[in-house]
From TrEMBL:
It comes from Desulfosarcina ovata subsp. sediminis. It is an enzyme of class 2 (transferase). Residues 1-250 form the Deacetylase sirtuin-type domain. NCBIfam families: PRK00481.1-3 (NF001753). GO terms for molecular function: histone deacetylase activity, NAD-dependent; metal ion binding; NAD+ binding. This is protein acetyllysine N-acetyltransferase. Its EC number is 2.3.1.286. The keyword Transferase applies. The active site is at H120 (proton acceptor).
Length: 250
């Protein structure tokens, strides 16, 4: 067991309040590509052309055909992987309290986490751009693109497009929880998109220990991660759960 890993186990065992911040990397092993880096979605699609609210308002049909239908296809097939189950296990063991996720795939809840802040919204729902009515994505009739609301308005995923604000409650609660935690587990994020990327800094500035899980170093690794565990989340999190169980039973 590497020293960093052993320190992470000790730190989690002593912690009173642990929160996780997750990004696309935790869902890569569920078959959902990341946004950046090799095989990233934004390597093949320009996010400003397909994932910005102005682009959607200008040409919803293209955004639906090029991005949203592709997301639906990938997310419909996705299942929680061992990393998601690992975080749910840490909650069941009383070690982890809350997950702040940038992901819109709902896989944390399906793995069993009960307190999940969906910082960028959820793809499980579509919302009317005109009247705000919502409907489960699985019930949307896609024979017409863009699909329409009963009011005639255009439906769009209940997720945050670039150029849109983070829901106030999600932002406020995430900032409060980040400031109050004594350990933040940062899993599978490049920490490049604000304001989510500022949560580890809020945690660190309030005295928390930052444990980072990512196969690649990120901007956090060089700046604030106390315990960078380099590797895939689907490998490291189950190992962490096993070590925590041993620790709890010791
Ligand atoms: N386990 C852990 N981390 C992984 C794995 C894995 N198996 N595979 C890749 N990663 C890491 C990558 O090294 C990278 O640092 O996950 C990170 C994914 O980074 P991004 O693709 O930038 O995703 P994320 O940080 O979630 O993006 C933030 O940007 O495009 C917007 O709204 C979108 O929520 C998203 C936000």
């Amino acid at each position: 067991m590497s020293d960093l890993f052993a320190d992470a186990v000790e730190t989690l065992a002593k912690a009173k309040k642990t929160v996780a911040l997750t990004g696309a990397g935790i869902s890569v092993e569920s078959g959902i590509p990341p946004f950046r880096g090799k095989g990233g979605l934004w390597e093949k699609l320009d996010p400003m052309k397909y994932a910005h609210i102005d682009a959607f308002l200008e040409d919803p049909e293209t955004v639906w055909n090029v991005l949203i239908k592709e997301m639906k296809m990938v997310l419909d097939k996705a299942r929680p992987n061992t990393a998601h189950v690992g975080l749910a296990d840490l909650e069941r063991m009383g070690i982890l309290q809350t997950v702040i996720t940038q992901n819109v795939d709902g896989l944390h809840q399906r793995a069993g986490n009960s307190d999940v802040i969906e910082f960028h919204g959820s793809f499980a729902w579509q919302r009317c751009q005109t009247c705000d009515w919502t409907i489960e994505t699985s019930r949307v009739d896609l024979s017409e693109i863009p699909p329409r609301c009963r009011c005639g308005g255009i439906l769009r995923p209940d997720c945050i497009f670039f150029g849109e604000m983070i829901p106030h409650d999600a932002l406020l609660r995430s900032q409060q929880i980040s400031a109050a935690c004594d350990v933040m587990l940062v899993v599978g994020t490049s920490a490049t998109v604000q304001p989510a990327a500022s949560m580890p800094f809020i945690a660190r500035d309030n005295g928390a220990v930052v444990i980072e899980i990512n196969p690649e170093p990120t901007s956090l690794t060089r700046r604030i991660s106390n315990l960078p565990l380099l590797g895939a989340a689907g490998t490291i999190l189950p190992r962490l759960v096993k070590a925590m169980r041993r620790h709890q039973n010791a």
